[in-house]
Amino acid sequence: MVSETCESANVAIDHRKGPRRRGDALYAAIFEATLAELTAVGYAELKMEHVANRARASKGSLYRRWSSRAELVADAVHHTLPGCGEAPDTGSVREDILGGLRGFAKLLNGPSGEAVRGLMAETIRDPDLMEVVRTRFVEPGINVFLDVLRRGAVRGEVRPSALTTRIASVGPELLRQHFLAHRSPVPDQVLVEIVDEVIMPLVRV
User: Fold this and answer.
1) Distance between CA 200 and CA 102 in Å, rounded?
2) Which domains does the chain carry?
3) What distance in Å separates the CA atoms of residue 177 and residue 181, rounded to the nearest whole number?
4) What is the pLDDT of residue 111?
5) Predicted pLDDT at 55
6) How many angstroms separate the CA atoms of 110 and 83, rounded?
7) pLDDT at position 35, please?
8) Average pLDDT of each block of 10 consecutive residues along the chain (205 residues)?
9) Three-state SS sequence of the chain
């Protein structure tokens, strides 16, 4: 059941009475409203007009920028995930992988975590959303760890045959699995175990 707060946000609004926002301010308001709606009602019940009402924007302003709710939600979630495109380069493949996982875990444990959880759950039922999530989030994350393994191979820490997307995906996939299966934040000890018990035995020379 949608809360009274959520219902009140979805009452029709006369946008002419509010200040007109443009550029970054408009995008920020729309993204904030999208995440609030996603948290309140879930992806399946999310409607563009309700996001527009919550953001005090016109529905047309959303459709001019996003052709589908999948694209809107992906952009809104991506907007909350700055700085996750690169893993540390410490000179140690173990520390780089652990640092990369810690960076992702910090983002998932933060305010956007519940929105990401809902988004990932809905991909099972929505093929279009699955494709958006795969291209916008999953593949870039795997590439981060593949770069770490490549640097490790140059230093002689990683065997060349381990430079595959399958092996590079192990860390992010185990982190994502733990995140989706548990309501609590991802403990650092889980990340250490993923690295020391799974990844390093797979990749070391």
Assistant:
1) 16
2) 4-78 (1.10.357.10), 82-203 (1.10.357.10)
3) 6
4) 65
5) 93
6) 14
7) 87
8) 44 49 83 88 87 92 89 84 70 96 87 74 82 87 94 97 97 93 89 98 95
9) CCCHHHHHHCCCCCHHHCCCCCHHHHHHHHHHHHHHHHHHHCCCCCCHHHHHHHHCCCHHHHHCCCCCHHHHHHHHHHHCCCCCCCCCCCCCHHHHHHHHHHHHHHHHCCCCHHHHHHHHHHCCCCHHHHHHHHHHHHHHHHHHHHHHHHHHHHCCCECHHHCCHHHHCHHHHHHHHHHHHCCCCCCHHHHHHHHHHHHHHHHEC
Residue type for position 98: L
Output the pLDDT for position 83. 55
Classify residue 38 as exposed, middle or buried by CB count within 10 Å of its CB (0-12, 13-18, 19+): buried
Quick one: pLDDT at residue 87?
73
| pLDDT at residue 56 in the model | 92
Contact 115, 70 (CB under 8 A): no
Q: Which amino acid is at 135?
A: T
Residue pointed to by tokens 């409607």: 47
